[in-house]
Amino acid sequence: EVQLVESGGGLVQTGGSLRLSCAASGFDFDGYDIAWFRQAPGKEREGVSCISGTDGSTYYRDSVKGRFTISSDNGKNTVYLQMNSLKPEDTAVYYCASGLDRGRRYYRSRGVRVPDFGSWGQGTQVTVSS
Fold first, then answer.
1. Rounded Cα distance, 96 and 120, in Å
2. Given this model, what pLDDT does residue 105 score?
3. pLDDT, position 14
4. What three-state secondary structure class fits 62?
């Protein structure tokens, strides 16, 4: 059974940092992509970043480039999202999700989209105060 468990959320001031973790079980990263999504109140869930479990290639949405860094520890089956220079507009519930490996070129043309990911964690709240 595939399981994804997020942790590391919390309350931080503008400009602060948080590191989210996504612990995966029930599958090996090779052949899969792991993505971070977020959903703010009243808004649609949006893809934030994605990493390939096969070759480690990464993708970021424009609004987080240069501030967020996704990484993986395949030995621990864990993916991290380091979030620096946080802004109030980053406030959301953050979810990790797994899907088949599609390659960075795919995400560059289509973005990181909910339908491309079949397994989801329960989410962790990130709140950035102004």
1. 6
2. 87
3. 98
4. helix
Report the amino acid identity of residue 62. D
Give how far Cα 19 sits from Cα of 10, 39, 110, 114, 126, Å: 10, 17, 26, 22, 10
Spell out a b/e string for 34-55, using b for 16 or more CB atoms within 10 Å of the CB, else e: bbbbbeeeeeebbbbbbbbbee
Q: What is the pLDDT of residues 26-42, one digit of tens each?
A: 988 888 999 999 999 99
Return d(Cα 102, Cα 40) in angstroms, integer: 26
Cβ-contact 53, 117 below 8 angstroms: no
The DSSP line for 77-116 is TEEEEEE-S--GGG-EEEEEEEEE---HHHHHHH---GGG
**In 57-84, which positions are buried (b, 16+ CB within 10 angstroms) versus exposed (e)?**
ebbbbeebeeebbbebeeeebbbbbebe
Rg (CA), the chain: 14
Tokens 């079949």 belong to: 118
**Cβ–Cβ under 8 Å, residues 2 and 119:** yes
Pairing status of strand 68-73 against strand 58-60: unpaired
The DSSP 8-state label assigned to residue 27 in this structure reads S
